[in-house]
Amino acid sequence: xxxxxxxxxxxxxxxxxxxxxxxxxxxxxxxxxxxxxxxxxxxxxxxxxxxxxxxxxxxxxxxxxxxxxxxxxxxxxxxxxxxxxxxxxxxxxxxxxxxxxxxxxxxxxxxxxxxxxxxxxxxxxxxxxxxxxxxxxxxxxxxxxxxxxxxxxxxxxxxxxxxxxxxxxxxxxxxxxxxxxxxxxxxxxxxxxxxxxxxxxxxxxxxxxxxxxxxxxxxxxxxxxxxxxxxxxxxxxxxxxxxxxxxxxxxxxxxxxxxxxxxxxxxxxxxxxxxxxxxxxxxxxxxxxxxxxxxxxxxxxxxxxxxxxxxxxxxxxxxxxxxxxxxxxxxxxxxxxxxxxxxxxxxxxxxxxxxxxxxxxxxxxxxxxxxxxxxxxxxxxxxxxxxxxxxxxxxxxxxxxxxxxxxxxxxxxxxxxxxxxxxxxxxxxxxxxxxxxxxxxxxxxxxxxxx
Length: 451
Ligand SMILES: [Cu+2]
Prior knowledge:
CATH architecture of the largest domain: 3-Layer(aba) Sandwich
Bound molecules: copper (II) ion
Oligomer: single chain
Largest sheet: 8 strands, mixed
């Protein structure tokens, strides 16, 4: 992979002074909400805009909370009267902003983006439901930036959009309802091999099925989005929406009956932090051989790193020797935009044109040729050029995209010829999606020139 990525001979870099800017980030205000034996304690007012609510449940019962905004012109008495008649009767009077499910002794955190108005935080697990009225007012920290999410989850009618493999441990999810009606999100641990149809059959059996659902986000209306802190153990999970279909109230089927179930894998990863402080990424624990020396070993100035199922896999690939059956690895390199200008490419060259610099040469030693090239969107929303290369000594899939202002990344999954599996590709995508460039283009250039 490593040699065939490089079309050019001698690499020379002109050092440029590239302007860099750092965006100021305003802190998002945080407030505490506690469910205790004494009831639900929440602030009576909240600032408009982004606000992080830290929930704590010190009671002995679950806290299943929903934040509701009363529609303009609706007062609390009207809401309570409607709820007393029929819980669903309140829906025309409010918009649902989602909420947490916090088990006894646990904590949780949700960042909302609130417009001004009269709100109610309700704990529907209480008998009767506990209610805390909240007024959102003022200008708040209007300039606060939305937090950078580790994972974007999009809910539609009727499905979930998110990567199928996600890292274990603490991460920040942005959950958006891009559908036409309300949705929620619950997680249920499942056995390996369980299908969507199996989960639907378990849900149809009801409580005897043994399927344990852990609510994550309570109902949220169309057009809303929240940030929510997650902390998942490795395993297989089903993501489930249990809400009834309000757009077809005669049938009143649940969203999961209509297909709103997504199976995901939560995988163990380790974090690699570049010693020069230029980048960090999460890589699969299955690939433990870290090779930060790799680009320099190959005569390339770019900072990078290689992971393989053994050192031998990386060494054989670097030497254009056949990679053993079933072996695989992942390589990542960072390239400043100035490199491409130095190569003679115009400043407005397309991503595909830039990516072609790293295409295999004709008649190369690996017998490698491009068999597919397309633009794709990474789970984090970035556009990347994906190239699939088949060779005699190894196959590879690479992704090329702008990872930061004036900095590109080339990441590649290498495998034995014909030995690439869907699981390897999923793991590779997970690794690429986690890449964080933590420096500036200037720092990258300085590191390359040995400063
Ligand atoms: Cu739903």
